Amino acid sequence: NSFRIVHTQSSRILGSWSEWNNASSQEFLAILEREKALQELANLKSPGKRDYKIEITNAVGSKDNGGAILGDELRIEFIIRSKQEKSAYVTILVYGQDGSITQLFPNKYQSDNKIPTNTDFAFPPPVAPKKYKLIASNPVGEDTLVVIASDSSVALENATPQGIYIGSTKSLSGTKGITLQLDKSGKVKYDVNRIIFETREK
């Protein structure tokens, strides 16, 4: 018998198979692990003592900047402040109003997510190709962008079923371990910042 995994809030099909066997069961478990890891990253809190500080300098389309109308381009600009560290690994997730979580950065256009600290960074970059743009689209409402800076990569490899977001070369289990370590042990240096983007029809 065929079966599939469907995200209850967004109705996204996360995976489908024609039969249950060893291969399909492994894929099934991998999808559950990936979704759990994304949830953990999206809900990550900043530590009390921070070696990094994410300073948002501009967020085009954010609620604080008046939001966006359907079809508008969205962009976020920030600086990762650090007195000690010269670089940081950056991961950007979008937490949709339907409960879905998608890794936006790193991706197939920008696979290297190690960026210098104390330097302006824009996502998407100003010279990005036309198909690599963030566009305000349906459903209208609020979505939360989560920016994570850390001294080790927490990006997920192939973070979405579409296969267009390519993260680090770390395995999913390794990424999950880093996620838990970030949250609980405090050994990894990191910071988290969130920006609410608001999309309106007009």
Short note summarizing the structure:
The chain has 202 residues and is of the alpha+beta class. Helices cover 17% and strands 36% of the residues. It has helices at residues 22-42, 172-184; strands spanning 3-6, 13-17, 53-60, 68-69, 73-81, 87-95, 101-105, 114-116, 120-123, 134-135, 141-150, 190-200.
Unreliable spans = 159-185
Gross geometry = globular
How much strand content do the residues show?
A: 35-45%
Share of helix, binned: 10-25%
What structural class should be given to the helix and strand makeup?
A: alpha+beta
Mean pLDDT: 77
Number of helices: 2
How many strands, what sense, and barrel or not for the largest sheet?
A: 6 strands, mixed
- The separation of the N and C termini measures 46 Å
Record field, number of beta strands: 12
Described by its quaternary structure, the protein is: single chain
Q: Sketch the topology as an H/E string, one letter per element.
A: EEHEEEEEEEEEHE
Description:
There is one protein chain. With 202 residues, the chain is α+β, with helices and mostly antiparallel strands. The protein is 17% helix and 36% strand. The protein has 2 helices and 12 strands; from the N terminus they run E-E-H-E-E-E-E-E-E-E-E-E-H-E. The strands form 3 sheets. Strands 4, 6, 7, 8, 11 and 12 form a 6-stranded mixed beta sheet that branches. Strands 3, 5, 9 and 10 form a 4-stranded antiparallel beta sheet that branches. A two-stranded antiparallel ribbon has the order 1-2. A hairpin with a 5-residue loop joins strand 6 and strand 7. Helix 1 packs parallel to helix 2. About 13% of the residues have low confidence.
